[in-house]
Each structure stands twice: as C-alpha cells, then as structure tokens.
Amino acid sequence: MSGGGLRTLDLSGKSWEQFPDWAGEDALSDILASVIPFRRWFGSKSRSLRSLRFESIFPFDGEMRGTIFLCILRGEFREGEGERYFLPLGRCRAGEVPPAAEIAWLAPSDEYSLLVDGFYLPETGRGLLREILSLAPPRSGLGILRTAALGRWEGSIAPDVVPSVFRGEQSNTSLLFGNSLMLKGFRKLVTGMNPDVEVGAFLARRGEGVPIPATFGALLGKSPEGDPLVLALLQEFVPNVGDGWSWFLSRLPRVFSGEEGGERLDRMVERLGRGTARLHRALGSDQSDPDFAPLPFEEEDLEALVGEVRERFDHVRGTLENALPELSDRLRRQSRTFLSSGPRMELFLEACQSGGTGGQCIRCHGDFHLGQVLVTPEEEVVFLDFEGEPALPLALRRLRKTPLLDVAGMLRSLHYLSLSVILNSPTHREAAERWYVLQSRRYLRAYASVMSRSSGLIPSPGVLGRILALCLLRKALYELQYELDNRPDWLGVPLAGIEAVLTAPSFDFGEGP
What we know:
Elements: E1 8-10, H1 19-22, H2 26-35, E2 49-60, E3 68-77, E4 83-92, E5 102-107, E6 114-117, H3 122-133, E7 143-146, H4 148-152, E8 164-165, E9 172-177, E10 181-186, E11 188-189, H5 195-206, E12 215-222, E13 228-236, H6 244-249, H7 252-256, H8 263-283, E14 295-296, H9 299-323, H10 329-339, H11 342-353, E15 360-361, E16 373-375, E17 381-383, H12 394-397, H13 404-421, H14 429-451, H15 461-486, H16 492-503
Parallel strand pairs: 1-5
Antiparallel strand pairs: 2-3, 3-4, 4-6, 4-11, 5-6, 7-12, 8-9, 9-10, 10-13, 12-13, 14-15, 16-17
C-alpha cells in the first residue's frame, strides 16, 4: 500500500512517546487490520481477519526519530484459531522507507509524518542487535538467549552501521549488518522455542565442522500465559553466490546439451551428501540432552510412517481424479497409472512394514531441499533454516524422526531440479532421468561414507532402503497435493517420483559413484 492509499491516524491530544497508553484504541487497530493482511509475511490470507489487538508493547530507543515500539499483535479470525504477529512500529519522513513499510499518515505531526513498519528503520535493527550482544540484563518483559558461538565471535559492528532489509523473504524479515551478521525477525509467532533457535543453539556447542551459519543468540518475548515467543534470531551472515537450486539450475542445461561436462556438479552433490551426514551426526551426538538425545526407530515409528503414506495416498487420489479433465494427455496418462496403483502401493507398504526396523530418530532439519542450501564463492555448501515444515504445529516440528526424511527431501529436490530443466522442452528427458539416478547414487554414497562412522544412527542397508523409500513416497505425495493445488503443469514430477519408488524401490549405498 503506497502513500496515496494510506489512511490517516488522528493523533490530536496524543504523544508518540505515550504510545502504549492509546495504542489499543479502535482507530489504530482498524488501520492495522486493513493493512497487515496484504503484507507478504501475513500467513492467513485465505481467512477473514475479524479483529486485531495489542498483546504486548516494548519501547526501544529510536535515536533521532523517537521511541520505537516492539509490538506483539493478536489477530482473531472469523474461522479457525487466532495468530500472533511481531510488528515494530516507528515514525519517519515521507519517502524514507519503501511503500511495503508504510502503514498510515500521522496528523497532526511534526517532521515525522508516517507510521511505518519499524524493521525498515535502521535504529530498530541497531537496537535489537545491541540488546542481544550486550551483556546487560534484558529490559522488562523480554528475554535474551545467547549461545556458545557468541563467546567465540571475534567480529565487531560499527555503532552507526545501517542494516539493510534482506529482499526475497516472505514469512520472516531479515536485516543484514555489513557482511558479518544477519538478524532474522520472526513475523508469525508461535508459543514455544522456535526450532531454528533451538537447533542453532545446540549446534553452537556440538556442531563443529557442520556447514551451517553460526547462531549467536535470540530475542524472546512471552505470551500472557508465560510461554516463550521467539522474536528475532541473530546468526552469522555467510557470503554466497546464491542458493543450491539456482546454482544447479544455471549449469545443468549446459550439461544436458553437452556444452560442458558435469564434474563440477558431481563434486557439489558429493559435498551435499557429506554435509548432510555431518549435520545428522552432530544432531545425534549428545545422549544426555533431553531434547536431542537419539531415540530408537521402533515398530511404532515404522507404523506411523506407513500410516502417513497410506493416508496421503488415499487423500490425494480423489483430488487427482477430479482434476483429470483439465490435464494434458501426457499428464492424464501418468495420473491414470498412479490412480490404478492402489494394489501395488498396498503390497509395497505391507512389505515395508514387515521388513524390520533399525537406526535412530534424531532432531532433523525437517524441510530439507536445495533452496535451503547456500553456495559459497568457494563452492562449499551451507545449510539454512531449521524451522521445519512451516505448516506443521511447533510440537510436531520438534519431534525426533528418522534422518532419512532429510535425505529423502534432498533426493526429491534433485529430482525436481533435473525434470524442471526439461519441463517445457522434453528433448533431454532421458538425460535428465539418467542424471538424477546417477546423482542420487552419488549423494547417498557420500552420505553413507560419513554416516558409517556413527554407529547406529541409520539402519542396516536392507532396512535402510525400505525406510528411505517410505520417506520418498511421503514427500512425493505431499508434492503431488501441492502441485494439484498450485501448479498442475508440474504434476509429472511427483508422479514420476512415486512411480520410480513403486517400480524399483532399491537404493545403492555402496562405495564410489
């Protein structure tokens, strides 16, 4: 919403510094309720926002522009449960922030005539950074979590540094301080410890050599019931040339067309496999931590995984059948093969369930794919974002699961990558399928070569193959539902993945590609 469409907030008789005294009045709540649903980070655009109120307000020194207020807002909807959002509020002159940050005109006003999203004001970022880095006790109502990595940090930040808002994010807002620190502001808040913070703090003390950004600390609030709310996370900024998806996608077409060899991509896949294993070894390394100690992958875990696959399969079949008339001939043929695969699916699930168990359950990444990988200028890999699947409740994201769920996520991402290159030009389809098969083996062997030094985290090869196949089916069925809802032209990718598992559910973990 840009300047001309902004509403005006009447401040007659009100002082900005006394904001907490009048913030709860209907005028401001109504303005926020009309603006916030259009922000990229607002997560419930399909629901009708019924009301919005201030749950907590924390004042911060806003330097020359006056106080900035860190606000926790509670939204109620006409359907479903309410949600909390984190929104710093401040003032500035017209033109000082992008339209996406503007909320309302202030009248009467002094030189600062705009109410804005405080994340776009440099003093907000500087204040949050000082709060986390300072050894002083946090201000009332806020908490600070500082990790072991902060004690080892040897960097420094100039007091007048101007943080820049990192572009491209949707669910969060991150601020970059030079080339050393990144402050991630969580917009939608859930009660409990965010897994990104929890895993980052754990790996700060147990993850030496794991390819992740160092986590230095976090800013915490509290719900009215006293449960923690993670407002912001401070991490190392990793200089990079982009994410793993874009890195591969810019090179793979030339490999398929024979313009260049694939050795560079082969090395990157091997780095991904070894890095994944180092991550899993670290996450399963502390037998004494009640939130991270590995647990045996037992019969009930296998039953739950089989049940989840069966439930997803049954659910998506009806949706796909209804969509058949709208599909191309090729996708219709693939879909009918899937729709007739019920007996094969059931036989496969029964075989998996009777194939035994093994290995352990650990805290995993939970949403592992090439978009969660940064590629450094030296072409090393760094893994990001340990929040897990955003759509899942926090309690489910914190559960310990087989690390093969992460492995399946990366394999499915490689499959998407290979077929996306030829989606609209199937000339190199055979090359794409062959490349995926070869890179899957390469990734798995690199992974197994490192995991073999952590006895017991993954099961024996025979059992491992069946559990991995279940994990691949689970992920591909989720993808199938997603593509039906959002991108029907992409249905062929998860359909091909499902058929491949049902046709030949075996995986090579031997030595050497």
